Each structure stands twice: as C-alpha cells, then as structure tokens.
C-alpha cells in the first residue's frame, strides 16, 4: 500500500516535470520565432539571395511571390499559429538555403554531436571517479596537486586545448587522424578536448564532496567495523560525493552542446555545430530556430535524466 | 568470568595485579596531534585496564581526551596523531604499532565501537541492513547472501527493532531515533566482540529512548562482554559502570569503583562535576563554583523595582489560549503539531516546557515569539493581541520578547564582531534611542553582566567556545530589555559544567532583571532546576501542567510518570 502511494507520488512528479519541460520548449520556440523579426533585412530578400546566388535588390514580383509562398504576407500571429502547429506535428519548416526540411537536416547531423557529447561526458566521469577514488583526501602531494590540476583544466579554453591536442597527437605523433569523420579513432581527440574541460569542473565538485564525506561519522563508523579503505571509498563515500557532480552534469550538458560547436569546427567534424554556424551566417532562420529548439528539448530531457539519476542515487530525494 | 575484586584493586597503581591477564591494558598512553614542532598533547599518561565482563566508564568534558583515548584502542586517531604507550595489550597481544591490515582484523571482530547519534553514524544512503551486513561480510563471517540476510534480521531482532525484515531494507531516516541507535549497536555487536566501546551512545536521544538503549547495552554486558562507556552524563554512567575514570585536560584525575566515585569522590573536579548536575535537589542552589556576578548597572536595579511593582498590578504577561498548529507533511497530509495548548506566563516567572523531540514544544515557542501564526487560538502579550496583530504592529513590541537558541553560532553572522552583534540588538531597544557612545558603554556593561571581559568585544563568534557563545547570545537577548526571554534548549549542546555556569547565569539574570523565561528543554533535570511551573507536552498535547515539584515529584499522568521514571538517576548520592 505504501509502495502504491510512492508510485502515485512519483508519476505525479514525472507528469509535472514533463509539463514544465514542455513549457520550456514552447518558450524556446516562441522566442526564436519572434526574434527573427528583430533581425535586419527582409526574409524574402534572404531567400532570393540564396536562390539566385548573388546579392541584389529583390524585384517586386519576386518579393510578392516568395512572401505568398512562405506565408510572410500573413499577420504575425497567424504565422506564429502556423509555426506552433507545424512544430507540434514535428515539422520545423524548410531551410531557406538548402531546400530541404529542417528536420532532415538536423536528423542527419545530430548523431555525431550526441555521440561526441555523450563520449565527452562519459570520459569526464570516468576520469573524475578514478582520480577521486585514488587520490582524494589522502595526506600526500598527489591529493593536493589534483585540485590545482583541475582548476587549470577548467580555465583552459577548449578550442585552444583542441588545437594543442590536434597538433601534438594527430600532426606530430600521428596517433589519431587529423580529420576523423565519424570513425571511432576520430572521436578520441575531440572527446578529450571537451572531456578535460568538463573534468575540471566536475572533478572539483566531486573532489570537494568526497573530502567532506570522508570526515563524516558514518565513514568512521564503517572504519570501526573493519572496512578497508578502498571499499569505504567505493561503497560509501563515492555515492555521496557523486551527488553534486550529477547535479552539475545537467548544466554541463548545456555547456557541451555549445562547446561542441567550436570543437567540431576545429576538428572539421560533422555535427549540429557546423549546421548552426552555416545557418547563422546565411541567416537561414528555420534551421537556426530548429537547432535551438532541438537543443532546448535535449537540455530538458537531460535535466530530467539528471533528476531521475539523483533519485536513484539518493532515495531520500523522492520524498522531497 | 565475572569475578569481583576488592574496590581498591581497580584504582590506578593497584599494587596487586589480578590473577589472570586483563582483557585490555593501557599503560602510560600519550596521544598528540599536529606536526613535530607544534605538537598538541591530547592524552597525557593515561593508564587503566579492563577486565573481562566489566564495564569501565570514562567521563569528562569535551576536549578532555576521552574519545581520543577510546579511538586509540582501534587505531583510528587519524593521520596527524602520534600515539605512544609503555604498554597497550588486548587479549594478551600487543596492539601498539599495528599495521592497517592487523587493525582491520581487530575492528568490529574483537572490538566493537558505537558512535553517538546514529543519524550521522549510519550511511544515510544505504539500507540499515547493508550496514549491519557489512560488519559480517568484511570479516568473511558469512558465506552466502541468504545467510547474510538471515543473520542481519536476527541481529535487528536481537537489538529489539520491530519488523526487522522490513526495517533491514529501509534507510536510516525512515527509522525512529531509537531504532537507528539500536541498528548501530547491532553493527557493533554483529560479530560478538570481546570488548564493546560506546562513545556517548545516548547523547542525542530522548530520555525514554535513552532508557531503552541503556537497557540494551546492559543486556549486552550481561552476556559477559566487557564494555568501555564514554559519556559526559554522570547519571548514565552510574547506572552502568563498575569502574569510573574521570578525565580532564587529557589526564586521569580520579579513577575508582562506581561506589567510590559517586559515593565518596576524592578530587575537587569530580565533586564539581557531580554538583553541576541540575535536578530537583539542586533547585535554588548554584550549580557551578562561580559566585554571583556583581551587577554594576544602577539603572537595572531601579528597573527591577518598577517591574516588580508592575507585576502586582497587571498579570499575566504572556498568555496562550488554545493554540492549534497544523503542518502539511511530505505526503500531503495535514499533521497537527500543536493541539489545544494553553498557558500563562506571569511577571518574573519561569515556565518550563518539557517533551521529547517531535512533541511540538519548539512550535509553541515559535508561536509565543509570533514567528508562526496559530491555526486556531491566539497569544496575547500584556493583554493585547500578539499573534493576531499585524507584523507592523508587532515590530514596536518585538523588543519585549527575546530568544536564546540551542546553537547560537547559527544565529550569529560569523563575520560580525561580538560588539556588533550586541550593538545591533541594542539599536532595537524601544523607547528613546541610544547614541553611539552610550551604546558602546552599554555593550561593555552587558558583557560584564554575562560574565565576559570587555576584551571579547572585538572577537568573532567562531573564536569563542560553546559556553562563551551562549553568554554572548544571552547578552544579545537581554540587550533590548525584554520582559520575556524564550529559551529553546539553551544548554542542550553544552558540557555539564558549562551547562551549570549558564544555568546559574540565567538564574542570576532572572532575579536581577526580573525577566520571565519560557524555558524549553528535553532535560527534565534542567527544567526542574530552573522552572516555577512546568508544562509537559506529548504529541502536541499538553498532558500535564502545574508547579515544578508537583509535576516532577508527584506526576499523575501516565506519560509524565513514564518520562520521570526514564530519567537516569545517580545511583550513589554524593556526600
């Protein structure tokens, strides 16, 4: 009976979270829709330029034709209504420049970006857990050096780190391809470039949590039962220390999506970053809006996963 | 193995050693902390022995080195410590300078350790069953998972946790305080160690739970295990211990049988400790050796006079009429925390509110301070609306009622100097505001009143000891010249001797300033010592009210009787 109540409580919570996530996505859609009116230049002019391949004043008949075709001659709120309706049906519009649905464009490029972000997050967590469990809270030089090293990594600009990695490991040592495409080997250097910066933040959060937990009475209590140091760290301390890191991970996912843009440029990788850069420079509004919308949805999904993970690690949070 | 020796043989430097080797021998133990050039000695030349099946208690204030001594016996004094002893043997084996692996073989298996407050001593993210199971699996005492589960449930049953199979799968916060402490004891006795060390095992517990836990520890002892009991509560110790070691500043000041220590204490310090315990017998007398401070404020004297005149004219000062307060729990259900509670507080009177945690006494205090609006009923201050008034109306009269909390540190801004803390309260004094210069002299006067030298003005809260902080909190509370001070567990976090000083100070101030106290505590002795009248709360209801002596010496409600009976009494009365 108690369990039933908990499940009811849980699903209510989940429903509330999904609803608020939906509102975030809707707000992002609305924002990007209205921002396009603040941008300089007629949309018809942009489309005309892209079509004709040159820059010139758009003839009057062309303007009317394009406006009619895209519905630009309609009142703003009619356009907005159509946009929202289309988005709800999974239609993000047509690219002005590439003559194809925005969803197709994004679907083709989102894979490499998600792979890169996921690999970077995973790598950062693996390094964090390993270094923390091995060095945190020990009374030696490594323990002290670790914190400093993390601050150093956190302050490095990732594109600079990417360039260094590229020059050293790809060009000089020839261990990895310079332009990797979507091969596994090609994923290593971009992943490291992103992961090391994230590790700087993540490692700091987990390290300080870990050091604090080691002083807790329940750790001493466990020691007094004869528990060895390593199993103390793995079974007791790590779980507590991971919590601030998991919370931080939600924020990191947002950072990864923007960080990926630069990293993809440095390594010449395919991905959403390239799509966004190209679309911005050609003022391909539907594509820009689409990428922002998808990013917002990814971010919402990620924070939901973060919250669920926290509840899994700390069951006390279910009641809050 | 429960051999009784003549009392003399337990004392230090006993001439005749017992027939068999004792379970534990500690000879000239020294423990210090810090690097070589600035080493701080915490334990100095401590020697004692524990025979099989006997209970040795170590008592002393915080910082006396009692916990460090105990931790030395399991090799957990920390990385920066230096342990040195002429002899340190357990079960005939030398345990001085053991390696980590050897220590681990000893911990839990041969020496069990119970820390205080299971809420923080059990991993909050692991089911309690896993914590108990850890004690078993670490020493490979059990092979299969099914056996482990079965043994864990057995152990929980043994320590008296109801529904052990269900509780084993729950997290510590889902258990009650008493059940948690029982589970923690289960982790320590899981492998039936020859020696059980309990470090303040009942300190964070309510008096009725404390009695249950002490019973449980006594049962463990009756199974023939030796025990080292560490506590600052002398009454707890007198119930359990065969021998008592009194420590101060890292040294043993007195060591003897329970009968001798409690019946015929030799050392002044031990006598002081015994005298400092507030109880029915201590009423009207001073607990600490300090003398009443000389009160220099002439203004205060005249004020005291006018107030006593007022006391005869109008009463009561604070009146609570049928208070009801409900809160919504995490499951969305309304819980009645305070149910139909009424009381009156007269001029210059002390009303004590006792009850266990969760009884609603703090919520009553918050409503008396009008920090919480009652759902039904109201509090009136000097006959006019108080909780029913608007905050704007109340602000004028806020200075009439002050508060002292259990932990003053969290109610101070840690960056403020003591002078600023008190000055801030002075500025809120109603009537004609003081100028800067007179406020400064007033700060010195207030510090003097609470027994602190003017040098403390520039200090900051973090630099003070617990007792000093509480004195500053009192100075801040009396600064606006309140008519009432609400004291919410003001001495719960203090050692018995510091507690005695603070209680004496509160008593002195009461007669000097003619303030009224609404005094909240779970400690019946403390409440009895200080209060004129008492209100006993249980599950949000005032179950009994009346004069302090009537309630505590002649309780007629079953709950009050149970509460009074659960208070550990000193088994031997000091001469």
UniProtKB/TrEMBL annotation, chain A:
Q: Which UniProt keywords apply?
A: Cell membrane, Membrane, Transmembrane, Transmembrane helix, Transport
Instruction: Please provide, alphabetically and separated by semicolons, the GO molecular function terms listed in this UniProt record.
Output: dipeptide transmembrane transporter activity
Q: Is Transmembrane helix included in the keywords of this UniProt record?
A: yes
For this record, an example GO cellular component is: plasma membrane
Q: How does it sit in the membrane?
A: Multi-pass membrane protein
Please list the coiled coil stretches.
none
- In this chain the ABC transmembrane type-1 domain maps to 110-310
Q: Name one Pfam family in it.
A: BPD_transp_1
Gene3D superfamilies xrefs:
MetI-like
Q: What does the sequence similarity comment in the record state about its family? A: Belongs to the binding-protein-dependent transport system permease family.
Q: What is this protein called?
A: Peptide/nickel transport system permease protein
Q: Which organism is it from?
A: Bradyrhizobium huanghuaihaiense
Automatic annotation (TrEMBL), chain B:
Which molecular function GO terms apply here? ATP binding; ATP hydrolysis activity
Share an example GO biological-process annotation for this protein: peptide transport
* Keyword Nucleotide-binding attached: yes
Report any Pfam family annotated for this entry: ABC_tran
Q: Which NCBIfam families match?
A: PRK10419.1, PRK11308.1
Q: List the PANTHER family.
A: ABC TRANSPORTER, ATP-BINDING PROTEIN, TRANSPORT ATP-BINDING PROTEIN
The job of this chain, per UniProt, is described as: Involved in beta-(1-->2)glucan export. Transmembrane domains (TMD) form a pore in the inner membrane and the ATP-binding domain (NBD) is responsible for energy generation.
Q: What is this protein called?
A: Peptide/nickel transport system ATP-binding protein
**What is the species of this protein?**
Bradyrhizobium huanghuaihaiense
């Amino acid at each position: 009976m108690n369990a039933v109540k908990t499940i009811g409580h849980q699903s209510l919570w989940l429903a509330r979270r999904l609803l608020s996530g939906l509102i975030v996505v809707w707000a992002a859609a609305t924002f990007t829709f209205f921002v396009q009116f603040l941008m300089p230049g007629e949309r018809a002019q942009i489309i005309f330029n892209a079509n004709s391949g040159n820059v010139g004043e758009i003839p009057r008949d062309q303007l009317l034709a394009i406006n009619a075709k895209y519905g630009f001659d309609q009142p703003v709120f009619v356009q907005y209504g159509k946009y929202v309706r289309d988005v709800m049906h999974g239609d993000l519009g047509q690219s002005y420049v590439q003559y194809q649905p925005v969803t197709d464009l994004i679907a083709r490029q989102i894979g490499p970006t998600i792979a890169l972000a996921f690999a970077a997050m995973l790598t950062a967590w693996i390094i964090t857990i390993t270094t923390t469990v091995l060095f945190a809270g020990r009374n030696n030089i490594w323990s002290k050096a670790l914190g400093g090293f993390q601050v150093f990594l956190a302050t490095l600009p990732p594109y600079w780190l990417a360039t260094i990695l590229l020059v050293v490991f790809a060009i000089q040592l020839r261990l990895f391809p310079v332009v990797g495409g979507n091969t596994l080997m090609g994923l290593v250097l971009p992943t490291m470039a992103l992961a090391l910066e994230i590790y700087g933040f993540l490692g700091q959060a987990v390290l300080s949590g870990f050091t604090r937990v080691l002083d807790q009475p329940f750790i001493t209590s466990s020691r007094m039962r004869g528990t060895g140091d390593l199993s103390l760290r793995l079974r007791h301390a790590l779980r507590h220390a991971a919590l601030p890191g998991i919370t931080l991970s939600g924020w990191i996912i947002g950072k990864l999506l923007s960080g990926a843009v630069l990293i993809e440029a440095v390594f010449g990788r395919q991905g959403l970053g390239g799509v966004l850069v190209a679309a911005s420079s050609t003022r391909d509004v539907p594509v820009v809006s689409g990428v922002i919308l998808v990013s917002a949805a990814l971010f919402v999904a990620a924070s939901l996963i973060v919250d669920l993970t926290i509840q899994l690690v700390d069951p006390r949070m279910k009641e809050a | 193995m429960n051999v009784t020796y003549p009392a003399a043989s337990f004392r230090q430097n006993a001439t005749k050693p017992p027939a068999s080797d004792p379970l534990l021998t500690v000879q000239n133990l020294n423990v210090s902390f810090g690097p070589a050039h600035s080493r701080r000695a915490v334990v100095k030349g401590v020697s004692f022995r524990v025979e099989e099946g006997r209970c040795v208690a170590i008592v002393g204030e915080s910082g006396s080195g009692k916990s460090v001594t105990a931790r030395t016996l399991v090799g957990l004094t920390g990385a920066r410590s230096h342990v040195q002893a002429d002899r340190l043997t357990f079960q005939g084996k030398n345990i001085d300078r053991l390696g980590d692996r050897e220590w681990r073989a000893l911990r839990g298996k041969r020496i069990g350790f119970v820390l205080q407050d299971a809420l923080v001593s059990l991993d909050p993210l692991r089911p309690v069953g896993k914590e108990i199971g850890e004690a078993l699996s670490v020493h490979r005492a059990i092979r299969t998972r099914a056996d482990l589960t079965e043994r864990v449930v057995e152990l929980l049953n043994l320590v008296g946790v109801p529904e052990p199979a269900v509780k084993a799968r729950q997290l510590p916060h889902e258990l009650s305080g008493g059940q948690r402490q029982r589970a923690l004891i289960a982790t320590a006795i899981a492998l039936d160690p020859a020696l059980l060390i309990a470090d303040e095992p009942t300190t964070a517990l309510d008096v009725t739970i404390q009695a249950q836990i002490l019973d449980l520890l006594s049962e463990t002892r009756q199974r023939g295990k030796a025990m080292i009991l560490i506590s600052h509560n002398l009454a707890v110790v007198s119930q359990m211990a065969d021998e008592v070691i009194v420590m101060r500043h890292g040294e043993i000041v007195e060591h003897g049988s329970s009968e001798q220590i409690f019946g015929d204490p030799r050392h002044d310090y031990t006598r002081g400790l015994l005298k400092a315990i507030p109880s029915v017998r201590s009423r009207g007398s001073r607990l600490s050796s300090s003398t009443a401070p000389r009160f220099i404020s002439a203004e205060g004297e005249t004020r005291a006079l006018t107030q006593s005149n007022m006391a005869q004219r109008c009463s009561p000062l604070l009146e609570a009429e049928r208070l009801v307060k409900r809160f919504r729990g995490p499951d969305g259900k309304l819980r009645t925390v305070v149910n139909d509670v009424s009381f009156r507080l007269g001029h210059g009177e002390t009303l004590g509110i006792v009850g266990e945690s969760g009884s609603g006494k703090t919520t009553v205090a918050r409503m008396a301070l009008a920090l919480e609006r009652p759902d039904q009923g109201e509090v009136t201050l000097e006959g006019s609306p108080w909780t029913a008034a608007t905050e704007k109306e109340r602000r004028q009269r806020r200075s009439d009622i002050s508060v002292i909390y259990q932990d003053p540190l969290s109610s101070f801004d840690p960056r403020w100097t003591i002078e600023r803390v008190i000055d801030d309260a002075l500025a809120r004094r109603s009537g004609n505001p003081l100028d800067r210069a007179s406020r400064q002299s007033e700060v010195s006067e207030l510090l003097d009143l609470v027994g602190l030298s003017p040098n403390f003005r520039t200090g900051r809260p973090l630099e003070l000891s617990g007792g000093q902080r509480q004195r500053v909190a009192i100075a801040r509370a009396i600064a606006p010249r309140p008519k009432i001070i609400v004291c919410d567990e003001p001495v719960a976090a203090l050692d018995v001797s510091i507690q005695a000083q603070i209680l004496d100070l509160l008593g002195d101030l009461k007669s000097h300033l003619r303030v009224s106290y609404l005094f909240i505590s779970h400690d019946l002795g403390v409440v009895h010592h200080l209060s004129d009248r008492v209100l006993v709360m249980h599950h949000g209801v005032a179950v009994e009210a009346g004069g302090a002596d009537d309630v505590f010496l002649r309780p007629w409600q079953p709950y009050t009787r149970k509460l009074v009976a659960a208070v550990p009494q000193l088994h031997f009365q000091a001469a």
